[in-house]
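Fill in residues.
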């Protein structure tokens, strides 16, 4: 991930600092906030901020019925139709981060704005879970890191487990509930992994093309081979021009029927990706739309189920 394609911090830090002056920071690394309940006892509230609604939904799966009441979750990037890379910071998000007990970020350069805003908000006490760090994934020999780890089911399982641990420490009375919800979510992920294994058994080694590396972890888990020139997908992700020779090489994948499908990031587009989309359609190569944020009306499991169903259908 390059800085040019990181989610953008569009507002000046100084202006945001003024906006949150006087706002209290988190009460502790995993300490909940509290308020008066109707019975006069202290009501526990754990404030959670996630950089995207994908990670916000993972927290929701762990919180279960306590989401929205005991566990108050704010997701910063939520628009299902927008390019996440066009995000600009808001004072509302800055305020949420200033009060957060737990922050779940993607990491890997994808959402550096979270760390920037946390520093501006002077909230050093929040527990921060970095999904890329949790994944253990490192750059390849060329120094490239695919930071789209929410398409990697083992990473999502590991993040959910850490979320459950943080919530249990902040709210011990509901620790068993968080553990049970996390285990249920883990079983759902195991079912998804079984689907990946079935696709791999039937189609392992078949070639695919991508516009960006967004879905690569899922495609690789299905045993599929990315045959897209690296120069093409890297240029698209960085927002730089694709050379004519690289574009020709990419389009030739479809002309020669070297790939079984095109995984197309529908949240970002440009002349090069549209040219590749036309080439796929002209050669009757199935197109599988992929996204960086949750589709409207779907949770994480339903979304990944739909992605795998689309891949399996495209492969026939």
């Amino acid at each position: 991930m390059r800085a040019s394609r990181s989610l953008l911090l569009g507002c000046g830090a100084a202006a945001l600092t003024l906006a949150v002056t006087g706002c209290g920071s988190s009460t502790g690394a995993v300490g909940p906030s509290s308020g008066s309940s109707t019975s006069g006892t202290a009501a526990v509230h754990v404030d959670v901020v996630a950089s995207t609604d994908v990670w916000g939904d993972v927290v929701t799966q762990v919180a279960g019925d306590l989401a929205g009441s005991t566990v108050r979750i704010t997701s910063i990037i939520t628009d299902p139709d927008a390019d996440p890379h066009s995000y600009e910071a808001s004072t509302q998000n800055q305020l949420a981060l200033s009060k957060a007990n737990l922050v779940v970020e993607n990491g890997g350069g994808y959402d550096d704005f979270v760390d920037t805003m946390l520093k501006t908000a002077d909230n050093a006490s929040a527990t921060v879970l970095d999904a890329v760090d949790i994944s253990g994934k490192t750059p390849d020999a060329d120094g490239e890191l695919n930071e789209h780890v929410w398409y990697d089911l083992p990473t999502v399982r590991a993040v959910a487990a850490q979320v459950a641990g943080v919530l249990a420490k902040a709210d011990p009375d509901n620790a068993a509930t968080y553990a049970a919800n996390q285990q249920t979510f883990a079983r759902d992920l195991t079912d998804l992994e079984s689907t990946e294994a079935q696709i791999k058994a039937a189609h392992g080694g078949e070639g695919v093309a991508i516009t960006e590396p967004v879905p690569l972890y899922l495609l690789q888990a299905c045993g599929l081979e990315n045959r897209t020139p690296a120069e093409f997908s890297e240029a698209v992700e960085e927002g730089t021009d694709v050379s004519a020779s690289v574009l020709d090489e990419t389009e030739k994948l479809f002309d020669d029927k070297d790939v079984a499908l095109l995984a197309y990031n529908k949240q970002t587009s440009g002349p090069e990706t549209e040219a590749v989309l036309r080439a796929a359609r002209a050669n009757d190569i199935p197109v599988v739309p992929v996204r960086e944020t949750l589709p409207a009306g779907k949770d994480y499991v339903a979304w990944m189920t739909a992605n795998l169903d689309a891949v399996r259908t495209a492969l026939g």
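The chain has a mean pLDDT of 88.
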